[in-house]
Give the backbone structure.
Amino acid sequence: MDVAYSLFAGALVTLLLLLVLTRLSFIIREACAWITWCVDVKYIRSLPSPPKAKRWIVGHMLELGPREHSLQYVQKNHKEFPKYCVYWLGPLLFEVITGDVETMRRLLLRPGDPKPTVYGFLHKWIGDGLLTTSGAKWRRHRKMLTPAFHFDILKQYIPVYNEVSHKLVEIWSGLADSGESVEITEYLHSYTLDVLLRCMYSSNSNCLEKKDGMDYLKAVKQLTDLFMARATNPLHIFDWIYFNTTAGRQFLHYSDVVHKFSESIIVQRREELLKTSKSAKKHLDFLDILLSAKDENGEGLTDTEIREEVDTFMFEGHDTTASGLSWVLYCLAMYKEHQEMCRKEIREALAGRDYITWEDLSKLSYTTMCIKESLRLYPPVPYIGKQLSEDMIIDGDRIPKGTWITLCIIVMHRDPLVWDNAEKFDPTRFNADNLKKRDPFTYLPFSAGPRNCIGQHFAMDELRVAVAHVLNKFHLEVDKEHNVERYAVAVLNAQAGIKLTLSLV
Ligand code: HEM
């Protein structure tokens, strides 16, 4: 017995020793990183930062968040610290926020910086897809997926934009002239989800009439709110804490709802493929490209990679566009002289037709200028995050490797140093002459550089067709009783939605 015991104890000690030895380099590395971090934190305290009185423990956490007052707070600080400033999320965690064009240009053109930890908070939902991944994997996927956004592919989607716009206009016609205002954002989320499912996954969905995808849309709303709450709570940075909280469990639950929905789209598609021949399908879609894409070694995407990209594009492709469309219609309802000019242009292009062709899009130049101006004032993606892969000098200060940096598009787009009369809705900023003079890095609704938005042409076409159909049919007016405030989660929403009065033209 004693011998057996000694053997057992000896084996256990050897095992423990082996474990410590093999993990030793890891332990030393982590300890060094921790010491460097603490030294850096001391140094970071000397950098420009908005006053936070004596709130050493909570830092700026009470001021930051998705609501209008937080957006104004960051905008105000940008005036005082135009290059960058440091915000504290508790005593040890910080992020740098910048709305400076030069700094943003340098950051967007730096190839090696990964996405910061907050993008990882999306992992259980959209996995490690194109939006969240970095390095070699990102380069491989971007190259494989870019053909899905070639003009020849995008052209085929025009009938879908028309068809779904007709449905939207039909539903809104039933609500027009009642004198009651209509909350438009919910309809527009169903609209953009329907467009996306039909174009990219050849689904025969009907989100507007049959309310397909309603559970998905509700889940996405919850997930973006939960994401934002997590991003401003340093205690929730660690998965092992977060997923043991109520919020974390809710995040897992809604991620599950979203996955079931995307699964159903893939299953539906597989069944249809079995029934119909490939040539009978209306167009080559994103799923076809995902399934058949090969890298230079002839390797395709794995099932997990396909699933992650489906979830990524499902979210990125509908939520941003719904936000963009909501704010464009809001701006046109606010500024009626521009609404009238768009309508005139649209009616001339359509010449009595009720269908917008690919060729018509190039005739909608004033409408396009209004869409661009609205994306300036209300950028659907208000912030972009980066994590420095090496130290960076900003305004003479060393910002250490590992720092999270937020590029504040929403602040730069309203910066009076960048835009004359920045708060004014003025579409002529985007006429051909002014565009030639403009530095492209001063206008970033779709970001810029290698990690710009892969779906930007898809989105712009969809927006133009939808706006043309809506203005061709309705006069838009804002409901003055309803307060519209910005609410910046992963995308820029209106906190209590947007209410417009619609009257038939
Ligand atoms: C008005 C609509 C849209 C806006 C304003 C917008 C804006 C943006 C922005 C600012 C980024 C950079 C995000 C970052 O670096 O964190 C981005 C990336 C991305 N967008 Fe869009 N987007 C829109 C529509 C779309 C659509 C329709 C799709 C797909 C069908 C799409 C797919 C993506 C993807 C996959 C990425 C990641 C690209 C990469 O990192 O390589 N977006 N978008």
